[in-house]
Specification:
The chain has two helices and 13 strands, in the order H-E-E-E-E-E-E-E-E-E-H-E-E-E-E. The longest helix is centred in the first third of the chain and has 15 residues, at 2-16. It is mostly beta strands. Strand 4 (69-80) and strand 5 (86-90) form a beta hairpin. The strands form two sheets. Strands 1, 2, 3, 4, 5, 6, 7, 8 and 9 form a nine-stranded antiparallel beta sheet that branches. A four-stranded antiparallel beta sheet has the order 11-10-12-13, with no helix packed on it.
Length: 201
């Protein structure tokens, strides 16, 4: 009987610490506004106890092509809706770096060092096949936004940014409105409201 009880305790402990690894797209935006998309990145979701989980972002790269190591977010709690979808959040204000690489020194990161977390949300589909995570943490003095498991359409953002610089009004130096740019100095107002002088040769 004692052996059966010991086996049951071992199995329960193993189940509590069992982790599921998800592989999907990862989109990173650095504080400088640079965005990098990574395919086939991994996030491990580990159940620590009844309602407490841990997220491990494996080989996280806050900068293009510079993997810092694994970033671990602990003390994550979950709620389950009627459809069985899980929503995760954390009150933790820091994540821990593990398996740190040599390039992490660029960001002042070393094994066991902490980075402050300003935002964290995650959802797991009812069939436990799809994980989506939004994370914002600080490294190198600026925020890094990480999105795992969903496509970010940067093309739309690019088009909108281009539209912001479209000329909506054009004037000559005398203040007369023109239909198109003319040779010489033009005064133009862009869609985002900025006014500037433009020299056309």
């Amino acid at each position: 009987m004692k052996k059966v009880f010991t086996l049951m305790v071992f199995l329960m402990t193993a189940l509590c610490t069992f982790g599921q690894v998800f592989t999907d797209d990862l989109h990173v935006t650095s504080g400088a506004g640079r965005t990098t998309d990574y395919a086939q990145k991994e996030v491990e979701l580990t159940k620590v106890s009844d309602d407490v989980y841990k997220f491990t972002f494996r080989k996280l790269a806050p900068m293009a092509y510079k993997t810092f190591g694994d970033f671990v977010v602990e003390d994550v709690t979950a709620t389950v809706d009627a459809a069985g979808e899980m929503t995760f959040s954390t009150a933790s204000t820091e994540g821990t770096w593990t398996n740190v690489t040599s390039t992490a020194a660029i960001g002042g990161v070393k094994e066991g060092s902490k980075s402050s977390i300003s935002a964290f949300t995650a959802t797991l589909s009812a069939d436990k096949s799809k994980l989506i995570v939004d994370l914002t943490f600080m490294t190198m003095g600026s925020d890094v936004d990480v999105v795992f498991g969903k496509k970010i359409d940067t093309a739309i953002n690019t088009v909108n940014a281009a539209d912001d610089y479209r000329y909506v009004e054009m004037y000559n130096l005398g203040g007369v409105r023109m239909q198109r740019l003319q040779r010489g100095i033009n005064i133009v107002r862009t869609a985002n409201g900025k006014v500037k002088k433009l020299l056309v040769k």
